[in-house]
Amino acid sequence: MLFSSALTLCFAVIGAVATPLERRAKAQVITKCTVPNTVALTFDDGPWVYLYDVSNALTGAGAKGTFFFNGNNWGCIYDPEEVKRVKFAYNAGHQVASHTWAHKDLTTLTWDQIHDEMWRVEQALMRITGAYPAFMRPPYGNYNDMVLEASGIRGQSVVIWDFDSGDSGGASVATSKNLYDQIIARHPSTILPLNHETIETTVHQVLPYAIKKLQAAGYRLVTLAECLGKAPYQSVAAPSTPDANWHC
């Protein structure tokens, strides 16, 4: 599908969104992987300055990860350096997905505001990479029926997690490592961890430790889509060229 056609399709979807009173099929909520022996390391809240280090740590270990990007959280996704980071992650074979535009609690928003938070980051990812994401992680992991209905209309699954490294709550490096040790010791068939690429200690101390321990335990470190046996994107086209519309 050409990029222009994809944009036309997405705008048509938005135009078709009537009201929350008109019940729609709810999005699937994903809380764990389904392909045995896989771990999908996920990273929220970027793009940010540590993205290259996250990507390189994964690539150096023959692994892939999934980045849930915001549009305007720690930085504006359209800033030239942020655009480079998003492209770098995508071109390295990692999965890019939606974490909504401004990291707002979607359960506090109106129907139209929810769609705006979703659409703006989807549009940005399509412009930068050409890929229309098939997965969305709601900020704080918070969702309600209206969020699920909006995601369903947008053709996306809602992704949570089954393991939290604790980094966003202020966990120390030692605590996060210990949490990884505990889950690995239980050796579930799959693990879907929550990490944050905006936290320096996560990137430079916890991540290398987790990669080594997980692989030593026999897990394959793959993208979210791979750990589910699903496609990562609803469509893929050529990226767009920056213009005056690329702003936050």
Automatic annotation (TrEMBL):
Keywords: Carbohydrate metabolism, Cell membrane, Cell wall biogenesis/degradation, Glycoprotein, GPI-anchor, Hydrolase, Lipoprotein, Membrane, Metal-binding, Signal. Its cofactor is Co(2+). GO terms for biological process: carbohydrate metabolic process; cell wall organization. The keyword Cell membrane applies. Residues 1-18 form the signal peptide. The keyword Membrane applies. Residues 37-222 form the NodB homology domain. SUPFAM superfamilies: Glycoside hydrolase/deacetylase. GO terms for molecular function: hydrolase activity, acting on carbon-nitrogen (but not peptide) bonds; metal ion binding. GO terms for cellular component: plasma membrane; side of membrane. It is found in: Cell membrane. Pfam families: Polysacc_deac_1 (PF01522). It is a lipid-anchor; GPI-anchor. This is Carbohydrate esterase family 4 protein. The lineage of its organism: Eukaryota, Fungi, Dikarya, Basidiomycota, Agaricomycotina.
